[in-house]
Amino acid sequence: MKANIFKRILLIIPVLTLAGCEDFLSTEPDSTRATITTPKQVSQLLTTAYPQASYVTFSEAMSDNVADKGTGTDDRTNRGSFLFEAVEATVDQQDSPDSYWAECYRAVSVANEALDIISKVSNPDQYNPQKGEALLARAYAHFMLVNYFSKFYDPQKDNSSPGIPYVTEPEKVVIKKYDRGTVASVYAQVEKDLLEGLPLISDGSYTVPKYHFNRAAANAFAARFYLVKKDYAKVIEYANQVFPGGSLAANLRPWNTTYESLSPQELFNTYSRATENANLMLVETSSNYGRYVATYRYGMNFAKWQEISAGEGIIGGSASWTFPLYSQGDNNYLIPKLNEYFVRESVNAEIGFPYVMLPVFTVEEVLFNRAEAYAYQNNTAAALADLNTYVSKRVGNYNAATDVVTTTSIARYFGTSVVRTGLINTILAFKRVEFVQEGMRWFDIQRYGLQVQHVTFGGQTITVPADDPRRVLQIPQSATISGIEQNSR
């Protein structure tokens, strides 16, 4: 593990101007529809069919990746999520659960508008790529919503608890009543949209494919979806389609080569670029996370980093991760990843909003999902091969002869003779350090029902077991006007 300490990170904040698809959304619905008459224009509309809000702040703060540092940036979402309290915020507050809810449904409304337009054209086959993207975008937004605002899906149960409204048509009235359905029904509809939309995706329809559901990202989404459903054959099938005929290894982030020589600012400027092979899909999110990731009161201190990075001990030899750990003041630690950039309200405006470009699907996740599926299929050799591929890109001064994960090294580290259990624990440990400060750990905590224990600076212990209703985010109060029942907490 490499630890570099510095006192302050200066952010490069490029000024961007919103244009393109915003022109469509700033007009009345009828005039908007009148101006969209070509596949290209539908594609422009679909650039906003993704939730431009971030889940990272509340997702990370609920996980076991954070500690109460006693001091630091006091943020309502960061604080409430750590304490497992309902976050009292509005849909306008950046990084809040309410904001994410609202943005997901705004994205759904755009996808539904696109699908409605396509359903009425005389040449629908020419719009197949746009239809595919709209279906995938609709499925993704609902998938993320149901995983946060409902009890987590368990394929061994009936999943009859309340889901979230699955909206499939444009709203024609000011206030429409919605039914939440069940978690099972939401998953069934996500799967329907996913399977219908994926074959229609065409990368040639985009100027920058990674800002859309391109084929690699669509297959990565399918692999994630079927991992939750525990359909491991399909996880492997879709993971292998991310780079058909190619190698996942060649597209992993080069942390122990190229990245190792980069400064913090260079890492910030590189991590979320569309040119990075590891980034399969990027979403622009309105977020303060890039500004406060290190200084949040409830964040990663050095003791937490030691816990998170301890998985390097699973590897043979004297291997250590090459992730560059930095500090931003006392007890405020981060890995330079998600940077802030500033979007002005207009070209000449002095005010605007901070944004973060968020990698929502990556090659690393695909590799881990495939390894986990191999483990459950008792294909130990294939699971180990994927884990060692990962190690080869993450260990400093990597030595293929000694820096190896084996069933023996796993058993020694975890003290278990059950091979599958050891493999799963290794995958979860590696994922934890890989995605630290990206909000991904929460999904594994939910999938495996891991207990979370937070200790406040004052000594109070907050224990949240697998069946605790506080693990389910509260439905926004503003949604009750549409008849959507809130969760019991």
TrEMBL record:
Transmembrane segments: none annotated. Keywords: Cell outer membrane, Membrane, Signal. Residues 1-19 form the signal peptide. Its main location: membrane. It is found in: Cell outer membrane. One of its GO terms (cellular component) is cell outer membrane. It holds the Pfam family SusD-like_3. Residues 23-227 form the SusD-like N-terminal domain. The keyword Transmembrane does not apply. InterPro entries: SusD-like_N (IPR033985), SusD_RagB_dom (IPR012944), TPR-like_helical_dom_sf (IPR011990). Residues 364-453 form the RagB/SusD domain. Belongs to the SusD family. This is RagB/SusD family nutrient uptake outer membrane protein.
